[in-house]
Amino acid sequence: MSIQSTVARGDLRAYEESVRLATPELVERLRDLLGAKLVAYLGSVGETRAVRQWADAHDGRTPSTEVVNRLRMAYRIAALLREKDSAAVVQAWFQGMNPRLDDVAPARLLREAELDEVGPQILAAARAFAAGG
C-alpha cells in the first residue's frame, strides 16, 4: 500500500470525524491533540477557561459558527498528522513557520485568514507533511 493511499484514508477518516463530532467533543479531542492554549489561540479567546466551557456539554456555551468551522479544520488536520506523528510533533507543526505556507505558522493562518482561502492550502501542507515530503 502506498504512502499516498494511507494518507488519503487518514484524511478521509479525519474529515468524517471532524464533521460528525458535536462541538463539545470536537473541542475536547482537539484540546487533547493540541493543548488548551493552542485551541484558545485558534478560537480567538484569551483564556483556556473558554475552551473548558466549550468542551463542557452541560455548560451550554459554544463558540461562534466561524470559530467552530476553524476548529473543525484544525481537528481534521491534527487528526491526519497524529496518524503519523506524536502530539508534540503535531503541536510543533501548527506553531512553526511552514515553508509550504510562505513561512507562516498554520495556526496563525487558521486564526487570522479567511478559512475558505487558506483552509485548502493548510490542508495540502499537512498532507505533504504526513506523506513525508
Question: Would you write up a description of this structure?
Answer:
- The protein is mostly helical.
- The chain has one domain.
- It has helices spanning 3-20, 23-34, 36-42, 48-55, 65-82, 87-95, 106-112, 115-130.
- Helix 1 (3-20) packs antiparallel against helix 5 and helix 2 packs across helix 4 (48-55).
- The longest helix is centred in the N-terminal third of the chain and has 18 residues, at 3-20.
- The two termini are 17 Å apart.
- The mean pLDDT is 91.
- It comes from Nocardioides ginsengisoli.
- This is DUF2384 domain-containing protein.
Helicity level: over 70%
Instruction: Quickly give the structural class.
Output: mainly alpha
Summarize model confidence as the mean pLDDT.
Answer: 91
> Overall 3D geometry?
globular
The stretches of 5 or more residues where confidence is low (pLDDT under 50) are none
Protein name: DUF2384 domain-containing protein
Organism: Nocardioides ginsengisoli
